[in-house]
């Protein structure tokens, strides 16, 4: 045990830690800025919807979920591309690098065309199978919901307001999640590059440094949101019930944000090493075996309401962060996978 503690103390004392910080931040800050502007765009949509009515705001939350459903393939291509190209660009394999870039462009173009057509034809079908409150259906044909929205819609009291609050909470939370995602992608690049240079030990340490920087930034943003929760929510809605439920969401869900950031950013390092399957399994199981069952059982069956759903979300993030950390520290991912 003393040897293990000594190892990590030595890890943090080395002079090269500064170069890791510099390398991680040089990649992270442009992506963080991109994510910030994306956050502003998304927040504007919720702001306008909230000024119209709580129903429109709740409906917008449903609509965005169909977008996320159809972007799963796009996100998968992004992760795969970063994993492959970040390693090949430092491996001096110019031919393989060129082929990877070309195949990525072709795959992205085909996937984009396919998803666009599928979205047009499948959205009405998906919509008809979902149990969406009738009051929301009048606000647009192409509505769809993921399971959490359906669970929230099944709550006995103030379900429309709670769905609207969830929509608000997700958009405000994006101010924290998007920087974490930016560091996720940055960590994939940093770790991938170092592995491409055959510097496995440096890749491991750089991943931890990037995660630590990201968690520090996310923690500061989390504190800012908690201290100004009601003010921020009041800008997005003028309905008192929606505001009250949104504040509850933020107070509860902000607790898990540093853990979320740690798991997400370390997951980026694993993706950069090509260990994408393990990350996918951990994330999927934390959602489908923890978040969804707990939300339904405690929120709907036991009648504990939205608060139980919010805590179920926190629990799934704790589980996800734990297992991704476990995967990262066992170092199996340092073996060549490409």
Question: What is this structure, in a nutshell?
Answer:
The chain is 84% helix and 0% strand.
Structure report:
This protein has 14 helices and no strands. With 338 residues, it is mostly helical. The protein has one domain. The relative contact order is 0.12. Mean pLDDT is 77; it is low at 133-145.
How much of the sequence is in beta strands?
under 5%
Helix/strand/pairing category:
mainly alpha
Shape: globular
State Rg: 21 Å
How far from one another are the termini? 34 Å
Low-confidence stretches: 133-145
The DSSP helix count reads 14
Helix and strand pattern:
HHHHHHHHHHHHHH
Total number of beta strands: 0
What profile does the largest beta sheet have?
A: none
**Quaternary state of the chains:** single chain
